[in-house]
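Revision sheet: structure tokens.
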Amino acid sequence: MATDAKKMIRLVQERTGYGVPENAPGVCVMQDEEGNPKIKLGFDAHRDCITVMGYEAAPEVSVDICAALAALCSLAVNSPVMTAYNLKAEDLAAELSDDGQVDEANRTALNIAIAMFKEAARMYARVYTQKKAQGEEWHGNA
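Predicted:
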């Protein structure tokens, strides 16, 4: 087999990783054509170790995308930012399947989750650089 639909649905129903931390410095938002947020992923870190991470999704966002984001949050929390940055779609596939493989129909969801984290990490690095340039001793908000 491949994608474990029951596992994916359970992650979403249990709201694993749901809720973007307040004042998260590492945030990525995907919007529709009108500028309405559809998916948001955010994290905070202390001394470059992710302490809290979560996502939010509009009701119309598919279960496979939400499950991929939930799996990403589970894997990334308590990891150094750069370790989490190196996660790949295959790492998420291992969390969402019974054999480490996902159906091709679900691969896009994994790629979206990974791309969103990379953008959130870029935003975190931007905040970190700005704080340091201002002379602040900043190690995240967490």
